[in-house]
Amino acid sequence: MGEPVPSTDGGPGGGEGVPDVPDAVRARLAVAQAACEVAELARAAVPVDPRTPHPDGTTLAEASAVL
């Protein structure tokens, strides 16, 4: 990997004690954070108990029976 380049979007970069962060790295971190948020929402939507009803009235047990 090459030397980090200063930010071109006005974000952190350069200055005393603040490392330069390439825009591509910043974009990858933003995508990873969004993916974590989506995964968190997905985990929250799945009930722990297979008999616990979802908001639509179905249960995980019923859904798995279809598969």
TrEMBL record:
Residues 1-22, 47-67 are annotated as: Disordered. This is Uncharacterized protein.
